[in-house]
Design a protein that fits this description.
By secondary structure, the chain is α/β, with parallel strands linked by helices. Helices cover 36% and strands 17% of the residues. The strands form 2 sheets. The chain has an 8-stranded parallel sheet.
Length: 240
């Protein structure tokens, strides 16, 4: 079973590799659902050459209906990833009535060339998911990251199983969100071929040498990192 780890730092990538993961979804700002990582982070991740890097392209948090300027940014990012030799790109876009934006994705598929294409969790708000899956298959997408139109994949398990049964031989259905050592085996038993998780744990926080105003409390927010032990627990259960 393929294990993809959502990582936001170089140390997270190293931890995932040591834990036996198969590939990385590289991003930043997990608290916003993930955003496009910096050029420096991406280049260093590629230099490590530890695991295949699939880069998230998402210019901001919030909904998945993009302006012309945002589309321009996304397309510049896709072109850069292709030039850098990134193996995969993770993206998505919807129309204002919550359908897959077929024309836009068709263009992005052409821009991406041979890069592996994953449609991200924008899928969890599409209006007609089975229709959307068929469209993504027609577009040539390789994978769909989804929690079954729920907050957590375990809560969307019924939908995920239905889509796996209907489309699993045509596109990789990859459950993600809330996947951990307590529930990962349920997805394997149901026949899924891949799982997505962060395995994140907070690092020790630093206490400022003096009290700070609540308006700048972001300075003491915890830092989360993909934890080797958390990932290894999952890998041990789902690897054949």
């Amino acid at each position: 079973m393929l294990v993809e780890v959502c990582s936001t730092s170089i140390q997270s990538i190293k931890n995932a590799a040591l834990a036996g993961a198969d590939r990385i979804e590289l991003c930043t700002a997990l608290e916003l659902g993930g955003l496009t990582p910096s050029k420096g982070l991406l280049e260093r991740a590629q230099e490590l050459n530890l695991l295949d890097i699939h880069c998230l392209v998402r210019p901001r948090g919030g909904h998945f209906m993009y302006t012309d300027e945002e589309i321009n940014v996304i397309e510049r990012d896709i072109a850069y990833l292709k030039e850098l030799g990134c193996i995969g790109v993770v993206l998505g876009a919807l129309t204002e009535d919550y359908h897959v934006h077929f024309k836009l994705l068709e263009r992005w598929k052409q821009l991406a060339g041979t890069m592996y294409l994953t449609f991200h969790r924008a899928f969890d708000v599409v209006k007609y998911p089975t229709e959307a899956l068929q469209q993504l298959i027609d577009l040539g997408f390789d994978c769909v990251l989804t929690a079954g139109q729920s907050e957590k994949a375990i809560d969307g398990f019924k939908n995920l199983c239905e889509w796996q049964h209907q489309f699993g031989d045509q596109i990789l259905i990859m459950p993600g969100s809330g996947v951990n050592a307590t529930n990962c085996l349920k997805f394997k038993t149901a026949g899924f071929k891949a799982l997505h998780l962060s395995g994140a744990a907070p690092l020790p926080t630093l206490t400022p040498p003096h009290s700070i105003d609540s308006e700048i409390s972001f300075l003491t927010q915890p830092i989360f990192e993909s934890n080797q032990a958390n990932i290894h627990e999952v890998v041990n259960q789902v690897k054949d």
